[in-house]
Write a structure and sequence with these properties.
Two copies of one chain form a homodimer. By secondary structure, chain A is an alpha/beta fold. Chain A has three domains: 290 residues, Ribonuclease H-like superfamily/Ribonuclease H (Nucleotidyltransferase, domain 5); 116 residues, 2-Layer Sandwich (Ribosomal Protein S8, Chain: A, domain 1), CATH 3.30.1370; 110 residues, RRM (RNA recognition motif) domain (Alpha-Beta Plaits, 2-Layer Sandwich), CATH 3.30.70.330. In chain A, strands 1, 2, 3, 4, 9, 10 and 11 form a seven-stranded mixed beta sheet that branches. A four-stranded antiparallel beta sheet of chain A has the order 15-16-14-17. In chain A, strand 15 and strand 16 form a beta hairpin. In chain A, helix 14 packs across helix 15. Chain A is globular and about 105 Å long. In chain A, 38% of the residues are buried. The interface between A and B is large, with 58 and 57 residues. Chains A, B: InterPro entries: CAF1_poly(A)_ribonucleases, Nucleotide-bd_a/b_plait_sf, PolyA-riboNase_RNA-binding, R3H_dom_sf, RBD_domain_sf, RNase_CAF1, RNaseH-like_sf, RNaseH_sf. Chains A, B: Keywords: Cytoplasm, Exonuclease, Hydrolase, Metal-binding, Nuclease, Nucleus, RNA-binding.
């Protein structure tokens, strides 16, 4: 079902109910861009990967969010699904909400256009959102405004008694006196209100100052903003306290309504967090990062903090890109690009469970032909997941999906473009892939691939992963050649060579050679095994929970994280020689 | 006339002709955003203003460009105009063109939507462009590619003789041998071509290496990219050198055509530069900066370099916002917001000249009702300009527009939000507004406006222009009070006070107290007075002219200019107390 701001608010209860009743939620996001600098190295650690992706994708926006709630119906032994395709766009024009700036990548815009994405609908009808920092600030200012107004009703005029009294020049006094002459005429008249002569803010301040002294209990003064943005003072009949209070309460109602509208789509994400349901995505790492950053709380600089935050917010996630690339699926699935995965899963030995659209709800079918619409991709992801899950039940007709079968796949995020496919293990210790066959080489800037191939030609085939124009990781196909290569190549003034482990400890300034440093306190508190029984404290207003990390007063754009150590990954823009297609393809698969 | 990439290329000759024949060109731009940080101070110098605007607006895009060419027809004594409204959007998907990232500001997107802007049309039909750096890089790579191909035709195979020969493992040798068995079978067959088994880039390299040795004069080998992005090698019949050359020439034609397409809208801006025509804009500073940055060359960090570049590119510009705010117009024109200016100029004492749409061309009329469409705003700007110009002719019916009357207005860019309205004088020395009545005050962070008002209450009214949360410029209404205030307030430990001039020289580390430093070499070469007779060297390919400044290998986003001295303007994000509307309004007008 298409959801824009014109039907979103009515649909909230229905969507929350679907979240509450479902067995799992599949998600997908469409973004305005993917990265600013394509600097992932095939031999990055999970921590390096996170830091790079966080930095390079930070200012892009989720503009479409697909949610598909799957509920297993034990009576009919079928899945019932309801799908929602949300258009998401930041609100502007509310003075309590920041005027968002965001990045677009023209290739992504082109891609979305070619898939039929409607940007006019997005910009006109997109649902707003606030992260918890923005929501807190809004709430704080709104409370202040409401308190001041309540106070004004009590004291008739502004409680601005702490302000000093400004003395007036003769000209100012003449002007203010003429204004109060007009006010007295108004009081004596039958009019309901009277607009005072237009004047600047300083003079308005003087008029308010005078009013506090002389107007009390006689009339009300208020500032109004005209259509042309001019501000004028208007004097009105004194209203009864009861009338003023009624007006105040009506305004509070409107303000709270507007506040809820601004929180918008974040309400849904918070409902998902509170539900603790299993979240399924395909290649979901970037979607998860953006979901947290945009709708919950800005992504922390620190990788361990991110893991803790992500695992707290979404205690059970499953990445179908990971699932389809390991265990028995690895050999049965040639390509796990989403469309190819679906095609494979529609054939033997897989059997798709029965999936129907929930009664009185909308959803996609396999014939919907809406590839790359977030809602449809979420649906397909859910279909693929349920088929793979089905397969795990010894290929038998599904009667009662067994969650324990998912244990090897839970909370493992697939990482694109890494050579040896390590994953991020949320709520667990990250795997450390063996990189004994990898060496670090630094060399003169004018070297080309051929120079490296030449250098290593005595040691068999190599895979070159450029770091910048004067260093690279070299992976040797013949692992037994590594020590010979290291000793043979150690005596040059032109280049220098070291093991991957040596390079890594040099970078991190540690003696500990472990490629991963994901040993945070969170893993001691909650391992992957007990992540299904997350503490119930999550059922609080997320704005007031752990997520309320006013982490780092980050500015909207280009913020810089403080380095937590001596880590200084070289990150130069790829040069021409690195962009030659052969290099990225140079692999033995 | 609406111009998108579907009619742009056919229209180029017509548009160039209109530029060539016109008397002046009025312009207007629609942008994806205006600024990232609103940090202009009311007492900035022109140099500070430029540096801030350049930095804060850099990554926003012009997405619509309005051009209106006005030609005075001496026979009919009327202006003939032709208007063009261009949709502009960066191209992606061409490997020689960068995948642009750009910023959007949600309030600007909202505003454009409310004016009926069609973003789907923009993204689908926008005309591409390249700045001179991008164009040069494209040209360079394309020339290389074409040279290599020409060489290949001469030598049948890649001239890759400098590459070392890679030795093969037994498995690789077996594979390569099997491929060459297939190739021999193909040569013996009747087929026109034969696809070789899919293999990775490394193996393809080995096959090419072998082909150079054994295949010469027997068959051709080429890499083809399939629809699914796979690369396969295809062996074909050896073509005659003549056939290959014909193919090569056809490819060059296609490549050059694609190159011209990518240069796109920049062609038009370059034609304007070469024409040296008078360019008229309303509040045109930002439009001019973006025009140079997006279509010509990245804006220099250095203000004097900018002035030189802008004056070289556009030797005659006229800002109707400036024109309408000075000399005799100042007292006749209340508001110079474009729509208000037009309304004023339609009434006495102004008389609008006769303006008609050029025969066989399209243009707007005053009834077009297309406010904030770039083409319409350009048209209105031209109408306003011609009416004010008309007025300068002693109010008589225009018979022959006199360019010399424009001298007081030429090359002066209006600067928004500065308190004493200095302007940027392109090709001339910037004015230095007297700021003897302004003092610089630094104070504790917890101070509020009231504390400052209190402090200065003995010295009359003040205008406060916050720099950050602990400093501000204070302008005194009573100039004779400045020296008394300075001596009275000089003995505090809580705050410190100095003259504007003292503060400025402290900032710039200069003894020279001049608020402006616009004394660059360009002004010696060409003053405003002789700017109407700019040197003809402009009539060169702009890509090869002065504009070809490979200034600073800037990265796409967030580049940092080297500071040219000790200048370090405090630029903190505005805090809450600065955002209260009264502060920006606190003025005596």
């Amino acid at each position: 079902m298409e959801v824009t701001k014109s039907n979103f608010y009515q649909l909230i209860p229905e969507i929350k109910e679907a979240i509450e009743k479902c067995d799992f939620i599949s998600i997908d996001c469409e973004l305005t861009g993917l990265n600013t600098v394509n600097d992932i190295n095939a031999f990055d650690t999970q921590k390096q990967y996170y830091e790079k992706v966080r930095k390079s994708s930070k200012n892009f926006l989720i503009i479409q969010y697909g949610l598909c709630m799957f509920r297993y119906d034990h009576d009919t032994k079928t899945y019932k699904q309801a799908s929602y395709n949300f258009y998401i766009f930041p609100k502007s024009g509310n003075k309590y909400v920041p005027d968002h700036r965001f990045l677009c990548q023209s290739s992504c815009i082109d891609f979305l256009m070619s898939c039929g994405f409607d940007f006019n609908k997005l910009f006109k009808e997109g649902i707003p959102y606030l992260n918890s920092n923005e929501e807190d600030k809004y709430r704080e200012i709104l409370s202040d405004v409401q308190k001041i107004r309540a106070n004004q009703i009590q004291n008739n005029f502004s409680p601005d008694t702490k302000n000093s009294v400004i003395s007036m020049t003769v000209e100012e006094k003449t002007f203010v006196d003429s204004v109060f002459k007009e006010i007295e005429d108004f009081i004596a008249s039958d009019s309901e209100e009277h607009a005072l002569p237009k004047c600047n803010a300083y003079l308005r301040r003087l008029i308010y100052q005078e009013a506090r002294k002389t107007l009390k209990n006689k009339a009300c003064l208020e500032t109004r903003v005209l259509d042309n943005k001019d501000r004028v003072l208007v004097v009105t009949r004194l209203k009864s306290k009861a009338a003023q209070e009624e007006e105040h309460n009506k305004m509070i109602e409107q303000e709270e309504d507007e506040f809820e509208k601004c929180v918008g789509f974040s309400t849904i994400i918070k409902a998902i967090v509170e539900s603790e349901k299993l979240i399924v995505g395909h290649n979901m790492c970037l979607d998860l990062l953006h979901t947290i950053d945009q709708f919950l709380t800005p992504l922390p600089c620190n990788y361990d903090e991110f893991k803790e935050l992500a695992n707290f917010s979404f205690p059970k996630v499953l990445d179908t890109k990971y699932m389809s690339s390991v265990t028995q699926f690895k050999n049965l699935i040639d390509s796990n690009v989403l469309a190819n995965l679906l095609a494979t899963l529609q054939k033997d030995p897989f059997r798709m469970p029965d999936i129907e659209i929930e009664e009185n709800r909308r959803g996609y079918t396999l014939n919907s032909n809406k590839a790359h619409e977030a809602g449809y991709d979420a649906y397909i992801t859910g279909v693929c997941f349920s088929t793979m899950w089905n397969y795990l039940h010894d290929g038998e007709k599904l009667s009662n999906p067994d969650v324990s079968l998912l244990k090897p796949y839970i909370n493992r995020l697939f990482l694109m473009r890494l050579q040896d496919s390590p994953f991020i293990h949320l709520g667990g210790r990250d795997p450390v892939p063996p990189r004994d066959h990898v060496v670090y080489l630094s060399f003169p800037k004018n070297w080309k691939l051929n120079d490296i191939i030449q250098l290593f030609s005595p040691f068999g085939n190599i895979y070159v992963s450029w770091i910048d124009d004067h260093s690279a990781f070299i992976s040797l196909q013949k692992k037994d050649q590594v020590s010979i290569a290291l000793s043979t190549l150690s005596q040059s003034d032109t280049y220098s060579i070291m093991t991957y482990a040596q390079h890594h400890s040099k970078l991190t300034g540690e003696n500990n050679v472990s490629a991963s440093s994901s040993n945070s306190s969170s893993h001691k508190k909650r391992s992957a095994d007990n992540s299904h029984a997350a503490p119930k404290k999550r059922k609080t207003n997320i704005g007031e929970s752990v997520l309320k990390q006013k982490l780092n007063n980050e500015s909207d754009m280009g913020e810089v994280c403080k380095s937590t150590g001596k880590v200084s990954t070289p990150q130069k823009t790829l040069n021409k020689k690195q962009l030659q297609p052969t290099f990225s393809e140079l692999t033995w698969d």
